[in-house]
Amino acid sequence: MTDQSKKRKASQADLWEMIPSDLSDEDDIEEIFPTEDLTKNAVLQRNSTYPKALDARVQPSAAASTLAGSKAKASLTFLEKHGTQTVDIYVGKENILFRVYKDILCNKIEFFDKMFNGKFKEANENAAILPEDDPEAFDILMCWVAQDTVSVKVQDFREKLHLWVLVDKLCLGNLQKSIMNIWRIEDKIYDTYYTAEEFQYIFEKTARKSPPRQYAARMLRFQSLKPPTEGHEYSIDYHGKPIPLSDLDVTALAELLAKNKEMLESYLELAGRTNDPSGNEVDPRKMHVY
């Protein structure tokens, strides 16, 4: 063996002797240097960190579950407030079924509160029959109960009239005013006028002095007293069609008033009362209901 080889072995031996002297724990010495112990130690370290990693994955899941639970609880506000109980209401001659949340309906309309929370049979059965009411009007009313909005077909006065009659029966004064204002505004926007048959229909469906009847009476006077449109011998609407019962149609007006005493009385009662400062008949479609 050469001197250089001997020196190399000596230096390696010195190195092995120096390392233990710098370490205070004999167990640490055994874990660091033998190859088998190093492998075991690496496995132990890997295994010891696995539960921590698993916990790290589980914790977000648990947090997400808690969050989902809180969201689910928050989303039950409607049920907590209104419950799940419903009532069945059969409307019209065909007994159209409306199934409505009892709490919402009774809180909105006192008529139904007394019906379903009183001593009537409807309260025991949670069901009622309204054969004389109009299903389409009742449907609009239920939309108002649920959404607090009124949506009616434009230019369909019958739908507005039926809804008003139903609301009048249920003593919903503010809603009655809203319906009449919608009625007037739409009539003005679409320049609506009424025929003799339509006036007759309104008078048949309403009581004396009721807002729809008074509106019809004012419209009748307004139409019958309209002067001829410039360039024409008669009054025309914005479609260019003759306005029913205007000065062109005096015979039809006379016949209508002759066969309907209440309409004639309403017509005459308004004489001179619905004129503007210039003496002209005021357009009733511009009158707001408060």
Automatic annotation (TrEMBL):
SUPFAM superfamilies assigned to the protein according to its UniProt record, in alphabetical order: POZ domain (SSF54695)
Classification via Pfam families: BTB
Position of the signal peptide: none
Domain BTB: 87-154
Highest taxon listed in the record's lineage: Eukaryota
Database matches in PROSITE patterns: BTB (PS50097)
PANTHER family membership: BTB DOMAIN-CONTAINING PROTEIN-RELATED
The protein, known as: BTB domain-containing protein
